[in-house]
Write a structure and sequence with these properties.
It is built from 3 helices and 2 strands, in the order ββααα. By secondary structure, the protein is mostly helical. The mean pLDDT is 81.
């Protein structure tokens, strides 16, 4: 395992740096890493189990209902705090 010196400190401190992190910062250009990243991303996306159309609509509806309820809750809390602040400070 390599060690890295922290020069910005008044006292030099050695911290361990894994070889994988050290090697990724050395010598490899972004052009060489990008195709590998894209290939790995495509492979991972193929492993995903995507929801069906019915499940997607059901979850979308649930998110919309939750958002509406939470919005109403925030509006009520905001109104209550506004009224309390007006009575206390005015």
């Amino acid at each position: 395992m390599a060690r890295k010196k922290l020069s910005f400190l008044k006292k030099e401190v050695n911290i361990p740096v894994s070889n994988k992190i050290r090697d990724s910062k050395l010598g490899k250009s972004r052009k060489l890493r990008l195709p590998k990243y894209i290939r790995q991303s495509i492979q991972e996306m193929k492993k995903v189990t995507w929801p069906g159309k019915k499940e997607t609509w059901k979850l979308t509806f649930a998110v919309l209902v939750f958002s509406a309820v939470f919005t109403v809750f925030i509006i009520i809390v905001d109104y209550v705090f506004k009224r309390v602040a007006e009575r206390v400070f005015l």
